TrEMBL record:
InterPro entries named in the record: CAP/Cytokinesis_protein, Papain-like_cys_pep_sf, Transglutaminase-like
Pfam families xrefs: Transglut_core
SMART domains: TGc (SM00460)
Organism (species): Cohnella thailandensis
Domain Transglutaminase-like: 176-232
Protein name as it appears in the record: Transglutaminase
Gene Ontology CC entries for this record: cytoplasm
Amino acid sequence: MKSAKGWKRASAAGIALAVLMTGGEWMLGQPGAVQVATAATTGTVSSTLVSTIQQKLNEGSASFAVQVSGSASASVKTVDQAFETAMKLDDYVNYTIKSYSYSSKSDGKTATVSVKVDYWENATQSAYVAKRSKEIRAEIIKPGMNAHQKVKAVHDWILLNVTYDRSLRKHSAYDALASGTAVCQGYASLAYRLLKDAGVEVRIAEGTVSTGAHAWNLVKLDGQWYHLDTTFDDPVPDVKGRTTYSYYLLTDAQIKRDHKWTIAYPAAVASYQQTLKSLKTKDTSRQAFYANLEETLGYKYLLPAYSASTVEDFASKIKAAIKAGQSLVKVRYVNGANKKLDLQKLLDAVPALTSIQTSSSSFPIGNADDALVTITFKT
């Protein structure tokens, strides 16, 4: 009788995986406590084996066993391949799995492979998420809402009720709901659960950003995919009642400025700006919603009237604001992300000014180097 074991361990972000295969024997649990399902394989992973593992993962089973043909080491590889396939059949289940490991005992022909799974969110917690999802949907999803309205409702609810876990210990949708805090994986998992339960086609995407591993969502609306990053739209420190939309329904090209990924996800190529423009004409019953969303998403800042690239442009807009009795100007600074606005030149260009303050933020829907600049002034 020969034996082998293997394990996979999730990274601190709960995303990246590493593999190790070693010799030796390792039994999981107590004798008789592991359930066994039979599935023969002949070079390729059988659908029976995959479905058996999928069922166990859906149930949140911490340990189970399967029987496959082959040696101890070969059986572990077979089960590993089936496990990888099974867990990727459902994004939510995939991202509840923290780590998993195998041990195998074989007589050379048939092997019993014991599987142990550690979850970020156990079965009881997943049931809590399902219950809360139903309650939240009843609160925010109104009769007659279409997918566009549902995405906005879910996005805003998450931003208003979840804060980023700076301790980097809370990774699940359960954490996001039960404690009100989670890292990106928890944000993306919760968005997935709420949107899918509301009838919106959604994926969880993983990749990297400047700070390391990251997770976000892809949503499908009217046949087109868009990126949705609720974590990036909820920056720290958390501000009660704040919702931002810099990472709301972006194309691949727009989000690639600070998000990278290697997994082949559905292409997101449609401009949501153009989508809303078209919907205002096609779906007149929701025209007010689309118009308000255009305003909320800041699409007007793509227009020349709300853009500036020189001191003279800023001065002109400030003079117009002063004439209108306003004390604030907000414009897109074209190619200004890495460029400081010369405030002294601006004061000289508008003699009526006595003081001026500026703040800026990223503007992913514009050009690569655009920034959204807010100027507060006194006269």
